[in-house]
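Late entry, evening session. Most of the bench is empty. Finally got around to the prediction I had been postponing all week. Sequence below, unchanged from the version circulated by S.P.
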Amino acid sequence: MNLNISLCMLLIALVLRLGGSAPSGFNYGDALDKSLMFFEAQRSGKLPLQQRVKWRGDSGLQDGFQQRVDLVGGYYDAGDHVKFGLPMAYSVTMLAWGAIEFNKEITDLNQMGHALWAIKWGTDYFIKAHTQPNVLWGQVGDGVSDHYCWERAEDMTTSRGAYKIDEQHPGSDLAGETAAALAAAAIAFRPYNSSYSNLLLVHAKQLFTFADRFRGLYDNSISSAQQFYTSSGYSDELLWAATWLHLATGNEYYIKYVVDNAVYMGGTGWAVKEFSWDNKYAGVQILLSKVLLEGKAGAYSATLKQYQAKAEYFTCACLQKNDDYNVQKTPGGLLYVREWNNMQYVSSAAFLLAVYSNYLSATKSQLNCPDGQTQPQELLNFVKSQADYILGKNPADVSYLVGYGAKYPLHVHHRGASIASVFALHYDVGCTQGFEMWYNRAEPNPNVICGGLVGGPDKNDDFSDERSNYEQTEPTISGSAPLVGIFAKLQSLYGNIGEGEG
């Protein structure tokens, strides 16, 4: 075994040693801790002394240098080393939403510090990238040249070109999502650091105005993103950003925006069965349902009821109670939305249902599905079923959260995890040398990318643990971000029933 045993492996050994009898349930608190550790493994820039993932080193320290702007920091997107602005901002929004909605649960697990740190690593970067009111740097690195190489982030030889949106080259989806992330983070930080919260709001408001005034698809302006994160539209991000800004500021301008544009931008028209880095409609509809359920809709209640009807369409479709217009499921019970990295759609859907269950419970409401009325607890049962599938209750008996449980993917499609650490192997691994020496190895990865949620099985619950099978074995920050809130909620509900599979 490689001498560079990760902290994750040590934690696993300790838990197994202390576990004693066979586990009767899942340790969601441990899964939460590992999910937050994944974000530490994905950090770009100068790593802090308190870094828990010890096989990672500093990287990307010249990002933005050619463009004379400081773009050091932020997150690598997945198993590669590109910093893609759209999924990064979505991931930070979801981390912040989890910290807001499940504040007590995360705090009770002593994880709020790590959760806020994960958010701040992203928001600090967005503040740097927002160099002028109408300028946002939206990407660092080029996906094509990056994918020619298999090397550690610490050894990067690929292009670190940076790409921006501005008035002449707009990106309403990217600017809107970044505004949403900053507004959500402002709410999350308000009880802990009010001055930072206020700073985030300044940037969020400017970015929303920029997104709304200068409209266009970001991948028309940053063409190198097209092959990797093509946007299907920006109307959902404009509504999403306005909704978060309303919640963060209480300013009527923003709620009026989502009402006035409800039909034109599809907020009350689109009934969707997917929530993701690209499609925010279900998130908007769930958030606006909260405003309605809490009796804060005022003169806007008629339109917010239309938003809520679409929120319930999504929720009922996940629960298989939508008059046959349901989200597909695998034979083993997993939501199945897309072939490539399906788990990110599972985690995001489960998160929305956990949140909506909270909203319904708090207002003593029920979910009205075409197939009958449903209690909030049934939403949580669904959330638990998806989380348990992820953690090992599935036909393959494998945990799709790397580092959790007795059996999980060992050949994860991730450059840093698949090559011995710079602290164990002290020479550079060249661009193509990495393919020859590490990518094509039959052996497991030398480093465990703890808490990474891999793409997961296919529609028949089949999974192949191979490094080249990136559709199934690559983890992403957008897949892991919703898990923080989910696991915190489940630990608060079921944590004492039975633990151990950590």
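Two things to note before I forget:
The chain has one domain: 25-492.
Strands lie at 83-84, 136-140, 162-165, 367-369, 372-374.
Will write this up properly tomorrow.
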